[in-house]
Amino acid sequence: LSAGTPVKAGAATHCPYCALQCGMRVTVGETVTIVPRQDVPANAGGLCQKGWTAGEPLTSGERLTTPLLYGEAATWDEALDVVAERIREIQREHGPDGVAVFGGGGLTNEKAYQLGKFARMVLRTSQIDYNGRFCMSSAAAAANRAFGMDRGLPFPITDLAAADAVLIAGGNVAETMPPFVRHLAAMRDRGGRLVVVDPRATATAGQADLHLQPTPGTDLALALGLLHIVIAEGHVDEDYVTRRTSGFDAVRTSVAAWWPERVERITGVPVARMRLAVEMLGGAARAAILTGRGAEQHAKGTDTVSAFINLALALGLPGREGSGYGCVTGQGNGQGGREHGQKADQLPGYRRIDDPAARAHVARVWGIAPEDLPGPGRSAYELLESLGAGGGPRALLLFGSNPVVSAPRAGHVAERLGSLDLLVVSDLFMSETAALADVVLPTTQWAEESGTVTNLEGRVLLRRQAAVPPAGVRSDLEILRGLAVRLRGAEGFPTDPREVFDELRRASAGGTADYAGITYERIAAETGVFWPCPAEDHPGTPRPFLDRFATPDGRARFVPVEHRPPREDVDGDYPLYLTTGRVLAHYQSGVQTRRVAALNAVVAEAFVELHPDLAERMEVSSGDRLRVVGRRGVTEGVARVNPAIRADTVFMPFHWPGVNLLTNPALDPVSRMPEFKVCAVRLERAG
Ligand code: SF4
């Protein structure tokens, strides 16, 4: 496949992968040349291996370039006609909710917005959610209940360099987003301290001044113990707590029971190390507490994040310049993807779908009656689990996601997808999920189209087109328009991203994530604009909580929470904890990065990381093949013996099919996040 016709040499754009959204210049010619941008603060001239090699998927010979209809090549008209006809038939028989939509946190803001509008206005289905539910939903839920607003980092990432202490709970940024580390390194160069909480001695933990290594599933107890020490040793910022928060007394009472020795018994973290962490944080003039998926992907993920937010509030950090709490969002547009209506419970502008004023506003922008807007639907896993079952959707349209690899209890998810009357997948490559589809629609990718993304700081950025897409592929916006016209003769589904963005601005106006004042021109001129930005003469809001929080009384809310064990604990049959995560060379379910030779040269297949003591007991060496057996499935991987992991825990990356056959779909009651980060397994030698 040729790289496509260049549109602009050195087009200023952003990486197609993670939420750091590193700035880069792309030139598409015989080959693709990528040069990091200095003007984007998040990476300031840095890129990781994934970013440097992001040109390869553009020219991959495995690229899909023609629609597939029941396995046969088809024209676009044939494919879209069949999809529209089948949707009509299924909705006639099963009603509007007979058809569901599943989106992705990698879709641009324009696509995420249009997907939500298509689902609710054209299909009139309530059944829409997206894979971001598996990413940061617990942090979003906890931030919303504490601050009345969820914006990953409610401060510019460069603030971290000026802090005196940073605690990261369950985030391995040195592997997942390496340029992030330069901000932490700058902090440490000034004498600041880095504390990392992780069951593994990760690359990030290796750079920390203090590593706390809790048993998987016990971060919540650890956070309660840290707050207990903060209170006991007089580190509470009483003036801040009085002026800027509510509800501290209940939390003060509840953490009294979490004395350090009790927490040590539960977490395995020595009391002395907990005290040291508190000393580092409590003694810092400016400090930040960050959470990542390790703390969040639990059936108690929301409460775990609340416990870390309580800690930050007691120390007086959120809403103070140079300090705060933040979530290290994972997917490329994980932040924007959750603001514009892909979520089952939300409308554009980060509005609640059950809020009558929000419904009236969005319905007005869309030119429909509020009562024609469906209500809330099922969350991602619940939606996938309901497919094809009694009362569940009979058809699914899926954009930018690969749940056969990325969903928990993935074998069951594959079965549900296989039971559908219609599965339509839009993707660049024949992903494991696309391979199950009745209709596969080949789409454009990052450098072949324009659009905006919102990075982990809440900074809205512009991706510019660098090349004409290969013949035969269409953008998701074109696909949605093609279906909207066939199903309802609908107007209002433009294919120009700028037109979609202008409507998104109107739909988000007055909402929490207010983009009304953001234009493509401003983003280009200002290298990104922070939301909320309610008017074109508004400067944007890098630090939204400096004066007040987004709660009705302007105060941040302490939320009392209690620790409980993982939903599935170890026992005689399954004596080891399994935890999952990412490696530097790959991204998410690997659909793109598993097709990049230079990245496969680094890691080509799933591995099982285990401690030398465990390896010795099993007489296993690095390179041996292991079977990992859990209650929901079995997978295999190559042994990697590594003292960096606890002896009671094994780790597998989730970029390849397999490990999510084992993970536990037990859901957090608030965020509906599955418990990806801990389940019970046993190891066997393969063969
Ligand atoms: Fe930057 Fe993330 Fe892309 Fe790496 S994957 S270059 S850290 S945006």
Automatic annotation (TrEMBL):
SMART domains in the record: Molybdop_Fe4S4
Q: Which domain of life is it from?
A: Bacteria
Which cellular component terms (GO) are annotated to the entry?
membrane
Query: Which GO-annotated molecular functions does the record name?
Result: 4 iron, 4 sulfur cluster binding; metal ion binding; molybdopterin cofactor binding; NADH dehydrogenase activity
In its UniProt record, which GO terms are filed under biological process? respiratory electron transport chain
Q: Which SUPFAM superfamilies match?
A: ADC-like, Formate dehydrogenase/DMSO reductase, domains 1-3
Q: Which segments does the entry list as coiled coil?
A: none
Its keywords, alphabetically, are: 4Fe-4S, Iron, Iron-sulfur, Metal-binding
Q: Does the keyword Transport apply?
A: no
Domain 4Fe-4S Mo/W bis-MGD-type residues, every copy: 8-60
Please state what the protein is called. Molybdopterin oxidoreductase
**Naturally occurring in which organism (per UniProt):** Streptosporangium carneum
